[in-house]
Amino acid sequence: MYILANGKLITRSAVTPYLPDGGVVIDGTKIKDIGTTAELKAKYPEAEFIDAKGGVIMPALINAHTHIYSALARGLSIKGYNATNFYEVLDGQWWAIDRKLMLSGTKASADALYIDCIKQGVTTIFDHHASFGEIPGSLFQIAESAKQFGIRSCLCYEVSDRDGEEKSLQAVKENADFITYCEQQKDPMLAAMFGGHALFTISDKTFERMVEANNGRTGFHIHVSEGMNDVYDSLQNYGRRPIQRLQDHGILGEKTILGHCIHVNSAEIEIIKNTNTMVVNNPESNMGNAVGTCPVLQLYKAGILLGMGTDAYTNDMLESIKVALCAQRQNACLPNVGWCEVTDMLFKNNALIGAKYFPDKLGVLEVGAAADVIVMDYKPFTPFSDANIDGHMIFGMTGRQCQTTIANGKLLMKDRELIGIDEEACNAHILEESKKLWGALNNCEY
Questions:
Q1: 29 Cα distance to chain centroid
Q2: 301-325 core/surface letters (b: 16 or more CB in 10 A; e: else)
Q3: β-pairing, 190-192 with 194-196?
């Protein structure tokens, strides 16, 4: 048991939303108590004390859509790659990378992303993986890294027909096998979804195989209408819009996540709402790929459970919320919209999405909730409380200010030093794997 205190405590709980000098007591994997620093020290004199040093103590963050397989792309330049549209972005960069990614590269990618998550206060991720160089065992490899680094992870594999039927069948099987594994293990830190790439790379036959292999065991995690490719393909080849096509195949539902949903119309929004399907916005990635802006305001107004991810453009959720707010205001040409929507997405809805797949209560610091806690090295020079914390986060904080990270009661980082992890050795392994990947992509040595 230990006390994490001597900080500005933001709980995201209606019971005790803020204490100017407070903390939490962690016993095992759960929060045992909250209170002022003096109260907790007096009540639990034998507990180990972790000093927040006046920082902000708050619930750890959740990333509702990311891609481990892209972790080794930082700084990468592929010879001849100069995308002028979204399809060229996919085919020239991301598909090129995942076609060269073997199991050792998948492990290095997972290690890199998990280290970055710890350093930026993210303790739960929903990952959407692709490594068409070597599919079998890839989700299991990521799961081992998740356990090693202590990050709560919901994993799936990206089914696609883009590399032929054999690879598509392997991807279906990888999802099905990992779902079975999670059912058997019952690890509260590990969950499975059934992944699919964009609809324009998935045939009706493959959708049927996915649904059959899943057999109603879990939800689907799929890219939808990220680019107009999806819309054109669905209308031209199937006579249906993407959301209608998903509905035809029984893909939608309360445990399914639709990534992006940029080019959805009002009829599709109604279907998403009526099926209680979830949507995850990835603002920076959408802007970087020049595919458009997700209609967050309309989705939110419709009552859809709308979360926030990064699409692996970054691992900093606080960076993403800043961009999400600016994107929605720019898109609406209104400076007074989006605040409640984007803050709810990150601080409220991501926890609700997490509740669909993990047994412990996330996103809040209260008795009985998961002991997922971070400390931000943030010293405000203006008034600070639960009444304006979101303003401080959007305009004052970044993920790199995280100094201490706890997940499931386990101390992963303290005062910016990783606990139980040889970071130098990990970085050396990741660097070697990235050199191999870059060399394979550019037919040279690094």
A1: 21
A2: ebebbbbbbbbbbbbbbbbbbbbbb
A3: unpaired
Q: List, edge to edge, every strand of the sheet that includes 194-196.
A: 194-196, 220-224, 257-260, 278-281, 306-308
Supply angle C-alpha 199, 203, 204, rounded to 5: 105
The answer for residues whose C-beta is within 8 angstroms of residue 393's C-beta and 6 or more apart is 318, 321
Please classify residue 425 by burial: count the beta carbons closer than 10 Å to its beta carbon, then call 0-12 exposed, 13-18 middle and 19+ buried.
exposed
Render pLDDT for 193-227 as a digit per residue (tens, 0 to 9). Answer: 999 999 999 999 999 999 999 999 999 999 999 99
Q: How many CB atoms lie within 10 A of CB 355?
A: 13
Q: How far apart are the first and last CA of the chain?
A: 47
What token pair was written down for 279? 């949507």
List all residues 6 or more positions away from 258 whose beta carbon is below 8 Å from its beta carbon: 222, 224, 243, 246, 272, 277, 278, 279, 280
Mean pLDDT for the stretch of residues 238-246: 98
User: Region 177-203: what's the mean pLDDT?
Assistant: 98
Rounded mean pLDDT of 92-102? 97
Q: What whole-number distance in Å separates Cα of residue 374 and Cα of residue 321?
A: 18
